[in-house]
Every structure is written in structure tokens, then in C-alpha cells.
Amino acid sequence: MQEILDGVAAGLTNAQIGRQMFLSAKTVANNVSNILAKLQLAERGQAIVAARDAGLGRRPDGAPEDRDAPSGARGYSPRASPSARALSRL
């Protein structure tokens, strides 16, 4: 699941993540839904913010991807949710 979350944090679509992992887009979507439930998040954008805070979705040089988080991520605070701690359990 962490590899899928890494792809989400990098701004990839379910289809792009699926191609990289040799999975169908539907399988990736199901895994993303499971990740959101486990992290107690409502939107993909919140998962992007939490994953990036945990160091996922970064290029090999350590810089974040050049994509902006979706609008659903605005106003999200990792302190308001246990999601940052839950990332370590994935």
C-alpha cells in the first residue's frame, strides 16, 4: 500500500500507478479507498498532504513533485488528524 500512496503523493492517476505496478486502475482505486479509510481521511488531497509530510511522493533528489495538491487538500492540518501517525502503519 505504501507504494500506491507514494504514487498518489506524486500526483499520479490510478491508471498511471497501475501501469507502474502492473495492476488495474480499479485495483489501485480500491487500495486508495482502503488507505483513505485507514488514515481516517475523506479525500485524496488529504492523503497527498499527509503522505508528502511523511516524505512520500518525492523525486530521488528529495524535492517534492512539481504538481500542486488538489483543492481538497487546502486547509488540511496533519495535527488535526491521526493520519500522520497512521502512515507508519501502512
Tell me what you see in this structure:
With 90 residues, the protein is mostly helical. It has a single domain (2-87), classed as Arc Repressor Mutant, subunit A (Orthogonal Bundle). 50% of the residues lie in helices and 0% in strands. The protein is built from five helices and no strands. It has helices at 2-9, 14-21, 25-38, 44-53, 83-87. α2 crosses α3. Mean pLDDT is 80; it is low at 66-80.
What is the fold's blueprint, element by element?
Elements: H1 2-9, H2 14-21, H3 25-38, H4 44-53, H5 83-87
Helix pairs in contact: 1-4, 2-3
Features:
90 residues; 5 helices; Arc Repressor Mutant, subunit A; mainly alpha
> What overall form do the CA principal axes indicate?
globular
Low-confidence sequence ranges:
66-80
**Mean of all residue-level pLDDT scores:** 80
Q: What is the helix fraction of residues, given as a range? A: 40-55%
Spatial separation of the terminal alpha carbons:
6 Å
Using the CA coordinates, give the radius of gyration: 12 Å
Q: Number of helix segments?
A: 5
Please, how many domains? 1
CATH topology: Arc Repressor Mutant, subunit A
CATH architecture: Orthogonal Bundle
Structural classification: mainly alpha
Number of strands: 0
The helix-strand sequence is HHHHH
Report on the biggest sheet: none
CATH level 1 class label? Mainly Alpha
Give the percentage of residues in beta strands: under 5%
The fourth-level CATH homologous superfamily is Winged helix-like DNA-binding domain superfamily/Winged helix DNA-binding domain
